[in-house]
Amino acid sequence: MKPNPCSMKNPCSMDEDAANQKTPIRKPAFKNYQEAASLGAKMWKDESLGTSGLACLSCHADHELLNLDRNQNFPHYVKMVGDVVTLDQMINYCMLNPMKGKQFGKNSKELTAMAAYYRAYRMQFMKEQRAK
Ligand code: HEC
Question: What is the pTM of this model?
Fold first, then answer.
């Protein structure tokens, strides 16, 4: 096996030259996790995200229907989908079906924001479980 290129100086080192040569997945980037999660928090409440008049939290208030008690990582099998999905795919499935909206692009800030809030919402669930 060749040595890991990222443990050598180039091409993965974060010096300024190398960073400038990288191809971003989108622009502008989020500054930090909190920025992504707060955009996501707004979107999960938004009844105009799809066309059904529902928000994600119309069905998922109080951590309902998220199967968080199973403490699984993605990807996993989801009964409603009838398939094994990643979190991003699950978000897009709920966008297309119950929300009757459009899917988010795979590199979109929207999809990252939705997933970031999922993480915050799940952490809150775990914290509440521990307190019980
Ligand atoms: C009309 C109700 C409804 C709406 C609105 C809805 N969902 Fe869901 N969602 C469900 C149901 C029902 C399931 C449970 C699937 C199962 O267990 O088979 C689910 C499952 C999920 C899961 C995965 C659960 C698991 O097993 O890991 C995620 C993540 C999710 N929804 C996110 C969202 C997001 C994000 C939105 C908004 C874009 C949304 N949902 C809107 C009904 C809804």
Answer: 0.91
- Tell me which of 47, 59, 68, 117 to substitute to probe ligand 1's pocket, judged by most ligand atoms within 8 Å of the beta carbon: 59
CATH code of 32-131, in short, is 1.10.760.10
pLDDT in tens, 46-71: 999 999 999 999 999 999 999 999 99
The finding on whether 63 has its CB within 6 A of some atom of ligand 1 is: no
For a substitution probing ligand 1, which of 65, 74, 80, 81 has the most ligand atoms within 8 Å of its CB?
65
Q: Which residues of 5-27 are buried (b: 16+ CB within 10 A; e: fewer)?
A: eeeeeeeeeeeeeeeeeeeeeee
Q: Is residue 120 lining ligand 1, measured as CB closer than 6 Å?
A: no
Task: State pLDDT tens for residues 114-129.
Answer: 999 999 999 999 999 9
